[in-house]
């Protein structure tokens, strides 16, 4: 397509599509509600972006060449967005992000990673293993790889690694040859209404995999009824097709382990980032790599060179006097796994968590579970809800989480008073959690802590 216009171009999945079409010679532009470092990068790469919902700011080439223009939108935008309505009423070819990715994926051997959590790190690990081992791949990632400083990898390889997003049933646009399901927990109840419907969607996705499906052992989905692919299982440390054994924690929270796979094992594996949860992610990614013919020894070497994903267990400071980790966790189970991993890394140290809830519906549906997870910290600084695409729901605020947190040291703060609250505290290990605009605080918090503690 000559022209591609993206509504919500600054989203992590949308920006990867923007880069893909730009690379293939299209004129690419778009709208996003908020400027960010990612939109700035896209502008630097030659894409015209504006930040007001204003059809007069749509570049003229897209208005003059309607028949040569593809409009892609994210389902996260509101249905009354003026630009969305304009393109629809004017008869443009307009598709969801998931459909655009599905069309691209049909041309490749697709390796998809799905799951309510764990999919971004696992898909980035898989893309890294394939790239670092010399096999090569194309990849559409849900985060910025710290090895490659991008969310899009382009290669002449026949392989495509895709993060398969369950939101709005987007992953049902993919028909992968191999796939991983990392988890299938209750989430996005504003879309699915109940847990059974979510599980059915994951089972639908599983039925679309043609060759090999690798599922986390214990994931609550039925793969026996409609699944055409060979089903295999992975685990952190429980014996199955793919699992870790001889797990030993090293300094700084890194792990050494043996990777076991059907017919063999490879010893002395380490992941280049700390935390037991990343060993589990590494097992999942390594399982797909084994299925795709990568040698166990190359997998071991590649795992050790993995640098992680921005905002996924992202260590900003790691000193004995003060440590700071930023993480995207926005679901109770993600929070529990992250806090458990951090406790494991920093035994005996005080954990102070800053959490920004994401969406009114998710807060409403999981308030009790959020409180239970956050009570595993030593101190909690809770922020107001980040609404994203949603309008407020009466009676739903961060206070309903705070009320059930069992910690004595807990407080609710606004964004404007967050830095002031941090200044009052003696920080040992600080963690920022959330999928909203809490990422805007990562750099200033890091700079403040480095200056304050001289680290």
Largest sheet: 7 strands, mixed
**Helix/strand/pairing category:** alpha/beta
Give the helix tally.
15
Radius of gyration: 22 Å
Class of the largest domain in CATH? Alpha Beta
The CATH superfamily of the largest domain bears the name Mur-like, catalytic domain
CATH topology of the largest domain: UDP-N-acetylmuramoyl-L-alanine:D-glutamate ligase
Give the helix level as a range of percent.
25-40%
Low-confidence residue ranges: none
> Strand content of the residues, in percent?
15-25%
Query: Which strand order spans the largest sheet, edge to edge or round the barrel?
Result: 8-7-9-6-10-11-12
Whole-number count of domains? 3
What is the 3D shape? Answer: globular
Number of strands: 21
The name of the CATH architecture of the largest domain is 3-Layer(aba) Sandwich
Overall pLDDT metric: 95
Distance between the termini: 50 Å
